[in-house]
Protein backbone atom coordinates (compact mmCIF):
# COMPACT_ATOMS: atom_id res chain seq x y z
CA UNK A 1 0.00 0.00 0.00
CA UNK A 2 1.56 3.31 -1.13
CA UNK A 3 0.03 6.44 0.31
CA UNK A 4 1.30 9.92 1.14
CA UNK A 5 3.86 11.44 -1.21
CA UNK A 6 5.67 14.73 -1.86
CA UNK A 7 7.71 16.21 -4.73
CA UNK A 8 10.84 18.30 -4.35
CA UNK A 9 10.68 21.93 -5.46
CA UNK A 10 12.34 21.07 -8.81
CA UNK A 11 9.98 18.10 -9.32
CA UNK A 12 12.93 15.71 -9.81
CA UNK A 13 12.63 13.88 -6.50
CA UNK A 14 9.65 12.00 -5.12
CA UNK A 15 9.33 10.76 -1.55
CA UNK A 16 6.44 8.51 -0.53
CA UNK A 17 5.38 6.21 2.31
CA UNK A 18 4.65 2.53 1.85
CA UNK A 19 3.92 -0.66 3.81
CA UNK A 20 5.53 -2.83 1.14
CA UNK A 21 8.09 -4.27 3.57
CA UNK A 22 6.62 -3.97 7.08
CA UNK A 23 3.29 -3.38 8.88
CA UNK A 24 4.53 0.18 9.49
CA UNK A 25 4.87 2.68 6.69
CA UNK A 26 8.45 3.46 5.60
CA UNK A 27 9.74 6.33 3.49
CA UNK A 28 11.02 5.67 -0.05
CA UNK A 29 12.91 8.07 -2.30
CA UNK A 30 13.12 8.00 -6.10
CA UNK A 31 14.60 10.32 -8.73
CA UNK A 32 12.68 11.34 -11.87
CA UNK A 33 14.58 12.28 -15.02
CA UNK A 34 13.62 14.87 -17.62
CA UNK A 35 11.60 12.25 -19.53
CA UNK A 36 9.54 11.33 -16.45
CA UNK A 37 11.28 8.02 -15.77
CA UNK A 38 11.92 7.12 -12.12
CA UNK A 39 14.75 5.17 -10.60
CA UNK A 40 13.99 2.17 -8.37
CA UNK A 41 12.90 3.61 -5.02
CA UNK A 42 15.33 3.45 -2.13
CA UNK A 43 14.07 2.94 1.42
CA UNK A 44 15.17 5.64 3.86
CA UNK A 45 15.64 3.20 6.70
CA UNK A 46 17.35 5.67 9.03
CA UNK A 47 14.25 7.87 9.13
CA UNK A 48 12.14 5.47 11.20
CA UNK A 49 12.42 2.83 13.89
CA UNK A 50 11.26 -0.77 13.61
CA UNK A 51 8.20 -0.03 15.73
CA UNK A 52 7.30 3.36 14.27
CA UNK A 53 5.46 4.50 11.15
CA UNK A 54 6.47 7.38 8.89
CA UNK A 55 3.64 9.36 7.31
CA UNK A 56 3.04 12.55 5.33
CA UNK A 57 6.64 13.21 4.16
CA UNK A 58 7.59 16.70 3.00
CA UNK A 59 10.63 18.18 1.29
CA UNK A 60 12.05 21.19 3.12
CA UNK A 61 13.80 23.67 0.75
CA UNK A 62 16.70 24.56 3.07
CA UNK A 63 20.45 23.87 2.99
CA UNK A 64 21.50 20.43 4.27
CA UNK A 65 23.14 21.79 7.42
CA UNK A 66 20.11 23.85 8.51
CA UNK A 67 18.56 21.08 10.63
CA UNK A 68 21.06 19.92 13.24
CA UNK A 69 18.79 17.47 15.03
CA UNK A 70 15.21 16.17 14.90
CA UNK A 71 13.76 15.24 18.27
CA UNK A 72 11.05 12.60 18.56
CA UNK A 73 7.89 14.11 20.00
CA UNK A 74 5.34 11.45 19.25
CA UNK A 75 3.90 11.70 22.75
CA UNK A 76 3.11 14.89 24.62
CA UNK A 77 1.17 15.75 27.77
CA UNK A 78 -2.12 15.68 25.89
CA UNK A 79 -1.35 12.16 24.64
CA UNK A 80 -0.98 10.94 28.23
CA UNK A 81 -4.12 12.81 29.28
CA UNK A 82 -6.11 11.02 26.58
CA UNK A 83 -4.61 7.67 27.56
CA UNK A 84 -5.49 8.25 31.22
CA UNK A 85 -9.05 9.26 30.41
CA UNK A 86 -9.45 6.12 28.29
CA UNK A 87 -8.39 4.07 31.32
CA UNK A 88 -10.84 5.99 33.51
CA UNK A 89 -13.71 5.07 31.20
CA UNK A 90 -12.99 1.38 31.79
CA UNK A 91 -12.54 1.83 35.54
CA UNK A 92 -8.79 1.22 35.35
CA UNK A 93 -7.81 4.10 37.64
CA UNK A 94 -4.41 2.66 38.56
CA UNK A 95 -3.20 2.77 34.95
CA UNK A 96 -4.86 6.17 34.53
CA UNK A 97 -2.70 7.52 37.36
CA UNK A 98 0.44 6.14 35.68
CA UNK A 99 -0.49 7.89 32.43
CA UNK A 100 -1.13 11.15 34.26
CA UNK A 101 2.25 10.92 36.01
CA UNK A 102 3.96 10.69 32.63
CA UNK A 103 1.91 13.62 31.38
CA UNK A 104 2.97 15.72 34.35
CA UNK A 105 6.61 14.90 33.65
CA UNK A 106 6.12 16.66 30.32
CA UNK A 107 3.94 19.49 31.72
CA UNK A 108 4.06 19.73 35.53
CA UNK A 109 1.45 22.52 35.59
CA UNK A 110 -1.09 21.04 33.21
CA UNK A 111 -4.36 21.77 35.04
CA UNK A 112 -6.41 19.15 33.21
CA UNK A 113 -3.95 16.39 34.09
CA UNK A 114 -3.69 17.53 37.72
CA UNK A 115 -7.48 17.49 37.99
CA UNK A 116 -7.81 14.08 36.34
CA UNK A 117 -5.02 12.74 38.53
CA UNK A 118 -6.92 13.92 41.60
CA UNK A 119 -10.12 12.23 40.46
CA UNK A 120 -8.41 8.89 39.76
CA UNK A 121 -6.59 8.96 43.09
CA UNK A 122 -9.92 9.60 44.81
CA UNK A 123 -11.41 6.61 43.00
CA UNK A 124 -8.52 4.51 44.29
CA UNK A 125 -9.30 5.56 47.86
CA UNK A 126 -6.23 7.82 48.08
CA UNK A 127 -8.06 11.01 49.00
CA UNK A 128 -5.07 12.66 50.70
CA UNK A 129 -3.01 12.33 47.52
CA UNK A 130 -6.01 13.43 45.48
CA UNK A 131 -6.30 16.64 47.49
CA UNK A 132 -2.61 17.42 46.94
CA UNK A 133 -3.04 17.13 43.16
CA UNK A 134 -6.29 19.10 43.12
CA UNK A 135 -4.84 21.87 45.27
CA UNK A 136 -2.09 22.30 42.67
CA UNK A 137 -4.72 22.48 39.93
CA UNK A 138 -6.73 25.13 41.78
CA UNK A 139 -3.62 27.15 42.60
CA UNK A 140 -2.99 27.41 38.86
CA UNK A 141 -6.65 27.91 37.89
CA UNK A 142 -8.96 28.87 40.80
CA UNK A 143 -11.93 28.87 38.39
CA UNK A 144 -11.59 25.23 37.38
CA UNK A 145 -15.03 24.06 38.49
CA UNK A 146 -14.32 20.37 37.88
CA UNK A 147 -11.37 20.54 40.26
CA UNK A 148 -13.65 22.12 42.87
CA UNK A 149 -16.12 19.25 42.39
CA UNK A 150 -13.40 16.65 42.79
CA UNK A 151 -12.03 18.46 45.85
CA UNK A 152 -15.52 18.22 47.34
CA UNK A 153 -15.64 14.46 46.69
CA UNK A 154 -12.27 13.89 48.33
CA UNK A 155 -13.26 16.14 51.24
CA UNK A 156 -16.44 14.10 51.84
CA UNK A 157 -14.36 10.93 51.85
CA UNK A 158 -12.08 12.49 54.49
CA UNK A 159 -15.03 13.65 56.59
CA UNK A 160 -14.40 17.33 55.83
CA UNK A 161 -18.03 18.22 55.09
CA UNK A 162 -17.70 21.98 55.55
CA UNK A 163 -14.78 22.02 53.10
CA UNK A 164 -16.82 19.96 50.65
CA UNK A 165 -19.67 22.48 50.92
CA UNK A 166 -17.26 25.35 50.21
CA UNK A 167 -15.93 23.70 47.06
CA UNK A 168 -19.39 22.81 45.77
CA UNK A 169 -20.48 26.43 46.26
CA UNK A 170 -17.32 27.64 44.48
CA UNK A 171 -18.09 25.30 41.59
CA UNK A 172 -21.71 26.49 41.35
CA UNK A 173 -20.62 30.13 41.32
CA UNK A 174 -18.49 29.36 38.27
CA UNK A 175 -20.71 26.86 36.44
CA UNK A 176 -24.23 26.23 37.85
CA UNK A 177 -25.22 22.58 37.28
CA UNK A 178 -28.20 20.60 38.53
CA UNK A 179 -26.03 17.61 39.45
CA UNK A 180 -23.79 19.75 41.65
CA UNK A 181 -26.76 21.34 43.42
CA UNK A 182 -27.83 17.77 44.22
CA UNK A 183 -24.38 16.98 45.58
CA UNK A 184 -24.45 20.17 47.64
CA UNK A 185 -27.84 19.18 49.02
CA UNK A 186 -26.45 15.80 50.05
CA UNK A 187 -23.56 17.43 51.92
CA UNK A 188 -25.90 19.90 53.61
CA UNK A 189 -28.14 17.04 54.77
CA UNK A 190 -25.12 15.26 56.24
CA UNK A 191 -24.45 18.43 58.23
CA UNK A 192 -28.05 18.55 59.46
CA UNK A 193 -28.83 21.64 57.38
CA UNK A 194 -32.12 20.24 56.07
CA UNK A 195 -33.77 23.42 54.87
CA UNK A 196 -30.63 24.51 53.01
CA UNK A 197 -30.50 21.06 51.41
CA UNK A 198 -34.10 21.37 50.23
CA UNK A 199 -33.29 24.75 48.71
CA UNK A 200 -30.36 23.17 46.86
CA UNK A 201 -32.63 20.43 45.45
CA UNK A 202 -35.14 23.06 44.33
CA UNK A 203 -32.34 25.01 42.64
CA UNK A 204 -31.37 21.83 40.83
CA UNK A 205 -34.92 21.42 39.56
CA UNK A 206 -34.95 25.01 38.32
CA UNK A 207 -31.94 24.20 36.16
CA UNK A 208 -33.22 20.78 35.13
CA UNK A 209 -36.94 20.14 35.77
CA UNK A 210 -36.52 16.53 34.58
CA UNK A 211 -33.71 15.67 36.99
CA UNK A 212 -34.72 12.32 38.50
CA UNK A 213 -32.10 12.64 41.22
CA UNK A 214 -33.44 16.03 42.29
CA UNK A 215 -37.02 14.78 42.39
CA UNK A 216 -35.97 11.71 44.37
CA UNK A 217 -33.92 13.68 46.90
CA UNK A 218 -36.70 16.19 47.43
CA UNK A 219 -39.26 13.40 47.78
CA UNK A 220 -37.12 11.70 50.42
CA UNK A 221 -37.09 14.90 52.46
CA UNK A 222 -40.84 15.41 52.06
CA UNK A 223 -41.53 11.82 53.15
CA UNK A 224 -39.51 12.40 56.32
CA UNK A 225 -41.75 15.39 56.97
CA UNK A 226 -44.81 13.14 56.47
CA UNK A 227 -45.75 15.11 53.35
CA UNK A 228 -46.50 11.93 51.43
CA UNK A 229 -48.69 13.54 48.80
CA UNK A 230 -45.99 15.91 47.52
CA UNK A 231 -43.39 13.16 47.91
CA UNK A 232 -45.51 10.95 45.66
CA UNK A 233 -45.68 13.69 43.03
CA UNK A 234 -41.89 14.05 42.93
CA UNK A 235 -41.33 10.29 42.81
CA UNK A 236 -43.71 9.96 39.86
CA UNK A 237 -41.79 12.76 38.16
CA UNK A 238 -38.55 10.89 38.80
CA UNK A 239 -39.97 7.73 37.23
CA UNK A 240 -40.49 9.54 33.94
CA UNK A 241 -36.75 9.49 33.32
CA UNK A 242 -35.41 6.87 35.74
CA UNK A 243 -37.15 3.56 36.30
CA UNK A 244 -35.03 1.89 38.96
CA UNK A 245 -35.53 -0.05 42.19
CA UNK A 246 -34.71 2.94 44.37
CA UNK A 247 -37.47 5.14 42.94
CA UNK A 248 -40.03 2.30 42.78
CA UNK A 249 -39.29 1.53 46.44
CA UNK A 250 -39.75 5.14 47.49
CA UNK A 251 -43.02 5.42 45.62
CA UNK A 252 -44.27 2.15 47.09
CA UNK A 253 -43.46 3.33 50.60
CA UNK A 254 -45.27 6.69 50.31
CA UNK A 255 -48.28 5.06 48.66
CA UNK A 256 -48.49 2.62 51.57
CA UNK A 257 -48.39 5.50 54.01
CA UNK A 258 -51.38 7.01 52.20
CA UNK A 259 -53.40 3.79 52.44
CA UNK A 260 -52.87 2.83 48.78
CA UNK A 261 -51.62 -0.65 49.57
CA UNK A 262 -52.44 -2.36 46.27
CA UNK A 263 -50.70 0.31 44.21
CA UNK A 264 -47.79 0.23 46.66
CA UNK A 265 -47.44 -3.54 46.11
CA UNK A 266 -47.36 -3.05 42.34
CA UNK A 267 -44.47 -0.59 42.57
CA UNK A 268 -42.58 -2.64 45.14
CA UNK A 269 -42.84 -5.73 42.92
CA UNK A 270 -41.32 -3.67 40.12
CA UNK A 271 -38.52 -2.65 42.48
CA UNK A 272 -37.79 -6.26 43.44
CA UNK A 273 -37.91 -7.31 39.79
CA UNK A 274 -35.45 -4.57 38.93
CA UNK A 275 -33.13 -5.50 41.81
CA UNK A 276 -33.84 -8.76 43.70
CA UNK A 277 -31.19 -7.80 46.27
CA UNK A 278 -32.90 -4.54 47.25
CA UNK A 279 -33.61 -5.29 50.90
CA UNK A 280 -35.75 -2.21 51.59
CA UNK A 281 -38.03 -3.00 48.64
CA UNK A 282 -38.49 -6.66 49.62
CA UNK A 283 -38.97 -5.86 53.31
CA UNK A 284 -41.58 -3.17 52.64
CA UNK A 285 -43.36 -5.49 50.21
CA UNK A 286 -43.28 -8.30 52.78
CA UNK A 287 -44.70 -6.08 55.51
CA UNK A 288 -47.62 -4.96 53.32
CA UNK A 289 -48.39 -8.56 52.32
CA UNK A 290 -48.35 -9.59 55.98
CA UNK A 291 -50.66 -6.71 56.78
CA UNK A 292 -53.00 -7.89 54.01
CA UNK A 293 -52.96 -11.45 55.34
CA UNK A 294 -51.17 -12.75 52.25
CA UNK A 295 -48.76 -14.88 54.25
CA UNK A 296 -47.72 -17.25 51.46
CA UNK A 297 -46.70 -14.33 49.26
CA UNK A 298 -44.93 -12.64 52.17
CA UNK A 299 -42.99 -15.81 52.95
CA UNK A 300 -42.03 -16.19 49.30
CA UNK A 301 -40.87 -12.57 49.16
CA UNK A 302 -38.58 -12.95 52.18
CA UNK A 303 -37.31 -16.35 51.01
CA UNK A 304 -36.30 -14.87 47.66
CA UNK A 305 -34.50 -12.04 49.45
CA UNK A 306 -32.71 -14.54 51.69
CA UNK A 307 -31.51 -16.44 48.62
CA UNK A 308 -30.36 -13.30 46.82
CA UNK A 309 -29.01 -11.42 49.84
CA UNK A 310 -28.85 -13.49 53.06
CA UNK A 311 -29.50 -11.26 56.08
CA UNK A 312 -31.12 -11.29 59.50
CA UNK A 313 -33.81 -9.00 58.09
CA UNK A 314 -34.73 -11.55 55.40
CA UNK A 315 -34.79 -14.55 57.75
CA UNK A 316 -36.74 -12.72 60.46
CA UNK A 317 -39.35 -11.71 57.90
CA UNK A 318 -39.51 -15.25 56.59
CA UNK A 319 -39.93 -16.61 60.12
CA UNK A 320 -42.80 -14.21 60.85
CA UNK A 321 -44.64 -15.17 57.64
CA UNK A 322 -44.09 -18.90 58.24
CA UNK A 323 -45.35 -18.66 61.83
CA UNK A 324 -48.54 -17.03 60.52
CA UNK A 325 -48.94 -20.06 58.26
CA UNK A 326 -48.51 -22.41 61.21
CA UNK A 327 -45.19 -23.70 59.92
CA UNK A 328 -43.46 -23.44 63.29
CA UNK A 329 -40.57 -25.80 62.56
CA UNK A 330 -39.59 -23.93 59.39
CA UNK A 331 -40.06 -20.62 61.18
CA UNK A 332 -37.68 -21.77 63.94
CA UNK A 333 -35.03 -22.68 61.37
CA UNK A 334 -35.34 -19.24 59.77
CA UNK A 335 -35.04 -17.57 63.19
CA UNK A 336 -31.91 -19.61 63.93
CA UNK A 337 -30.32 -18.39 60.68
CA UNK A 338 -31.25 -14.82 61.56
CA UNK A 339 -29.72 -15.13 65.03
CA UNK A 340 -26.51 -16.61 63.61
CA UNK A 341 -26.14 -13.70 61.21
CA UNK A 342 -26.85 -11.18 63.95
CA UNK A 343 -24.13 -12.73 66.12
CA UNK A 344 -21.64 -12.55 63.27
Question: Can you put this structure into words, describing what you see?
Answer:
By secondary structure, this protein is mainly alpha-helical. It folds into three domains: 1-74, no CATH class; 80-175, Alpha Horseshoe (Serine Threonine Protein Phosphatase 5, Tetratricopeptide repeat); 246-344, Tetratricopeptide repeat domain (Serine Threonine Protein Phosphatase 5, Tetratricopeptide repeat, Alpha Horseshoe). The chain has helices at residues 77-89, 93-106, 111-123, 127-140, 145-157, 161-174, 178-190, 194-207, 212-224, 228-239, 245-257, 261-274, 279-291, 295-308, 312-324, 328-343; strands at residues 2-7, 13-18, 26-31, 42-43. A four-stranded antiparallel sheet has the order 1-2-3-4, with no helix packed on it. A hairpin with a 5-residue loop joins β1 (2-7) and β2. The longest helix has 16 residues, at 328-343. It starts with a strand and ends with a helix. The model has no long low-confidence stretch (mean pLDDT 93).
What is this structure, in a nutshell?
With 344 residues, the chain is mainly alpha-helical. Helices cover 63% and strands 6% of the residues.
List the helices and strands and how they pair.
Elements: E1 2-7, E2 13-18, E3 26-31, E4 42-43, H1 77-89, H2 93-106, H3 111-123, H4 127-140, H5 145-157, H6 161-174, H7 178-190, H8 194-207, H9 212-224, H10 228-239, H11 245-257, H12 261-274, H13 279-291, H14 295-308, H15 312-324, H16 328-343
Antiparallel strand pairs: 1-2, 2-3, 3-4
Helix pairs in contact: 1-2, 1-3, 2-3, 3-4, 3-5, 4-5, 5-6, 6-7, 7-8, 8-9, 9-10, 10-11, 11-12, 11-13, 12-13, 13-14, 13-15, 14-15, 15-16
Amino acid sequence: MNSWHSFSSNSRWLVFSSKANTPYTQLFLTHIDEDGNSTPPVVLDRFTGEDRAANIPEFVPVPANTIAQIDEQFLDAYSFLRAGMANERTGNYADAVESYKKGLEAEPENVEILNSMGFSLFQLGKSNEAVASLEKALAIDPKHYKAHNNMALASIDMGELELAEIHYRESLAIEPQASIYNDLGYVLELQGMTEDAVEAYRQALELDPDSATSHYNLATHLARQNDYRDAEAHLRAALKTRQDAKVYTGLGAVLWQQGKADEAVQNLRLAVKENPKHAAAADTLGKILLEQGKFEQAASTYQTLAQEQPSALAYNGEALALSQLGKTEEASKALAKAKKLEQN
